[in-house]
Structures are given as C-alpha cells and as structure tokens.
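Hi team,

As requested, here is the filled-out complex form for the 2'-deoxycytidine-5'-monophosphate run. I kept the field names the same as last time so the parser does not choke. Let me know if anything looks off before we queue the next batch.

— J.
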Amino acid sequence: MSEKNFQIAIDGPSGAGKSTVAKAIAKKLNIEYIDTGAMYRALGLKMLNLGIPMEDGPQLHKLLEETEIDFQNGEIMLDGQVVSHLIRTPEVSMAASDCSAFPCVRKQLVAAQQKMGESKSVIMDGRDICSVVFPDAQHKYYITATDEERARRRYKELIEKGENTTFEETLAAIRERDYNDSHRAASPLKKADDAVELDTTDMTIEEVVEYICSRV
Ligand code: DC
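And here is what came back:
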C-alpha cells in the first residue's frame, strides 16, 4: 500500500447510520466507499432465491465457490447482475445476518474486502472492519445509537421505499439482528478496543461526518 493511502474503518449495529455517514465522508474526501453489508446481503439474496437453507454444509461451500460478489460503479453485483435494488428488504436483511455467521462465508468475503482496500484509500463499514478486516486502519470508529432511534431511522427508510411494515416490527427486527450479529461465534459485532465510539442518537448526519472528517 502506498504511504499516502489510508483506511477509515466503521463498525456498529444496524440502523446506526454507518452507510449514510460513510458515503458522505467518501464524497467529501474523494475516496472509495465499500459497503461490506451489501456483500453479505447479496449472498443472503442468492440463498433466498435458490431456497438454500442456512446451513454450513456442502451446499453452502459449493454455493460460495460458484458465487461472484463485487462492486461496479458503486453498484453491488451478484454473479454479474446489479442487485443493489433487491437487497434492502427485511427478508434479505435477516438472510444476510444469518449467512454472515458462517466462518466459510466470512473467510471469503473478508479476503475480498481486504483486497479492495489494499491499494487505495477507502472508507469501509460493517461489523468487523476495525477488528478483523483492517485492524491496522488509521481511523477506527464504532457508530451506534439507541435501538429505538435506529428503528425510527430504518422505519422511515422502509416506508419511503413503499415497504409494508410497522414501527414495532422494525424495532423487533433490529433487536433480533443485533442479537444475531453480536452473539455469533465468528467475529461477533463488538467495539474494537482502539475504536472511537460515537453515539449518534442526538447527532445529525452532518455532525457525525464533520466529527470524523476533522480527525482524518
Ligand atoms: O450493514 P448491513 O445492515 O447492510 O449488514 C447486513 C448484515 O450483514 C448484518 O446484519 C451482519 C452482516 N455483516 C457482517 O457480518 N459483517 C460485516 N462487515 C457487514 C455486515
């Protein structure tokens, strides 16, 4: 990696605003944004579409061998097709969380993420970026907010997209995913010791972006 390249690693639970913040910072600093959650979502989508049960068996290993996930012009690609518009439903969110618990899945996607951030400056968000993907990143943040606030933000997004759901359902789904993501054996969601924690419950997106940019 060139000396001038740097990595900004952002972790945190779902709905904390990581991707909105990361996108804005990428634009401001003119660096690449890599949404690692989209990669787990793409795989979750493929498993749902193929009706493959969430089991760490030969089927999952075979599926991984036959699956190509990458980004092109900011779009998430699954086996050569743009799937950005298909991966934000509550079903795919849960499938992503479920499939992300398997060590073989993490191994493959983490290796791809490390490669993407190897030769350029990037901002990457996810659950294990500070701890596993880029433990030596120059800038590490753990972005969080109360579960009610995260559910409010997610609910607003889903309604705007025309999803048929309620606030209570959204809150329950956020809590279920939090539990899943922080209780799995492989790289559970956890603040890295050296990451700066930012509770964004009472912060605007602009404030969070400003806070991080002023430190880079
Ligand atoms: O950030 P997101 O909500 O789009 O992520 C979807 C799921 O993918 C999340 O519930 C857990 C998993 N994930 C992960 O395990 N590791 C990452 N680096 C990113 C996402």
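Two things worth flagging: The CA atoms of residues 35 and 147 lie 21 Å apart. Residues 14, 36-37, 40-41, 96-97, 100, 126-129, 177, 181 surround 2'-deoxycytidine-5'-monophosphate (CB under 6 Å).

Thanks,
J.
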